[in-house]
Structure formats: C-alpha cells, structure tokens
C-alpha cells in the first residue's frame, strides 16, 4: 500500500515533501516496459525496484496522462512530465539501458488528493487537460 498525501507525495518516499509544487511527487512506470527490458537485456530477474519508480501500472498508456488530471484507485494526480532515465539504469539494468529507456521511463506526477493506492486492479478516471 502507498499512502499518498496531496502536495507531498508518497509517505516514506525519498522525495516525500521535497519542495512545494515538486513535479515528481510520484512516478509511474509500465509493467510492460519492465517485461520488455528483461527480454531486451537478458535479465530475467530484473526487479521493478531497479527503475526507482513508485507505482507500477499495467495496461495504461502513460503518455495519455501527460498534462492531465486523473484519478487512479481513488487518488487524484496531475501528470507533469516524462520520468527520464538516468545513467544509473546502465548499472542496475545493463549497459545501454539509459538510452533504450528514453521515452519509456514513465510519468512524473503531482499528488492532488490524499488517499491510498493498493496492489491489484483499480479504476482510472481521466479529467480535463491542465491549462
């Protein structure tokens, strides 16, 4: 379970309460990208934790959530930008992973409402685009 707090992020995360208005309070990553990385780099035991993202989703096009408000599992977020990979990916995944992950690194978001995300199926609701 991840306890989300509006304007702060996820309790216990390294960026929790980092600074007001921080655009990376939560980072989302696609399960499908993890599976592709395991195959591409031949690392069958690659853990989702290696990518240093907070929330792993499946079957959701994260690009659609960019610059939009959305609710996932009852918690409201605002998609603020791509979660770009860093050089660390070349060490924890495999050489070349940073370049391969460009455009696949996930979504950064702000937390707009308090709530808890749990493991398992949840509903996704899209709201308006952010002006």
Provide a descriptive summary of the structure in words.
The chain has 131 residues and is of the alpha+beta class. Helices cover 16% and strands 31% of the residues. It is built from 3 helices and 9 strands; from the N terminus they run E-E-E-H-E-E-E-H-H-E-E-E. The radius of gyration is 14 Å and the shape is globular. The mean pLDDT is 93.
Structural class: alpha+beta
For the record, the count of structural domains works out to 1
Largest sheet: 6 strands, mixed
Ends apart, CA distance between termini:
31 Å
The CATH superfamily appears as: PK beta-barrel domain-like
Count of DSSP strands: 9
Low-confidence stretches: none
Strand order in the largest sheet: 4-3-7-6-5-9
Secondary-structure blueprint:
Layout: E1 2-5, E2 9-10, E3 26-30, H1 31-41, E4 55-57, E5 68-72, E6 75-82, H2 88-92, H3 97-101, E7 107-111, E8 115-117, E9 124-129
Parallel strand pairs: 3-4
Antiparallel strand pairs: 1-2, 1-8, 3-7, 5-6, 5-9, 6-7
Question: Which descriptors apply to this entry?
Answer:
single chain, 131 residues, alpha+beta, M1 Pyruvate Kinase, Domain 3, six-stranded mixed sheet, three-stranded antiparallel sheet, 16% helix, globular
At a glance:
This protein has 131 residues and is an alpha+beta fold. It has three helices and nine strands; from the N terminus they run βββαβββααβββ.
